[in-house]
Design goal:
Distance between the termini: 161 Å
Shape: rod-shaped
Structural class: mainly alpha
Mean pLDDT: 87
Order of helices and strands: HH
């Protein structure tokens, strides 16, 4: 039973040893432990502050990135809209130019046709006149003896042909 009931001297020296150890630890170890805990707490606080600052920076960066993306999308839409307008404008200009060119070609063709018709009419008139003169000359040679009467007859016939063509 002596294990369960220690002697008074043993208890006394245990308290003295504990007190000395407590004083040494309180004097030397306790400030070092408190300093380490305080340094650790300060380090943790700084880490939390850095993390919060980094989170704020990340949020700001995300907002800026979204703003840049939105601006880029708006610019892309503007560029596409302008390109579509330009395409439509170019197509309209090309159509207009093609219509003008077609009109010029048609006008030139009409003018050429009119000129060719006039030339053909003039050739036909000249041929008819020559033919009529030949026929008239043969008839008049038989009927008329002088050239003056023949010229008057030809002029009269040419005037009649001109009246009929108009």
């Amino acid at each position: 039973m002596e294990l369960f009931t220690p002697d008074f001297g043993l208890v006394f020296w245990m308290f003295v040893a504990f007190g000395i150890l407590f004083l040494i630890l309180w004097k030397f170890a306790w400030p070092a432990i408190l300093k380490g805990v305080d340094d650790r707490a300060e380090l943790i606080d700084k880490g939390v502050e850095y993390a919060q600052a980094a989170k704020l920076q990340l949020d700001n960066a995300r907002k800026e990135a979204e703003e840049y993306l939105d601006e880029a999308r708006r610019q892309q839409a503007d560029i596409l809209r302008d390109a579509d307008k330009m395409k439509t404008q170019i197509i309209e200009q090309a159509k207009s130019a093609a219509q003008q060119e077609a009109q010029k070609v048609m006008d030139n063709a009409k003018l050429q046709i009119q000129q060719q018709q006039k030339e053909a009419q003039q050739q036909f008139r000249n041929q008819v006149s020559d033919f009529a003169l030949q026929i008239a000359g043969k008839i008049i040679n038989r009927q008329m003896a002088d050239d003056k009467a023949q010229n008057e007859l030809v002029d009269t016939m040419l005037d009649d042909i001109e009246k009929n063509n108009k």
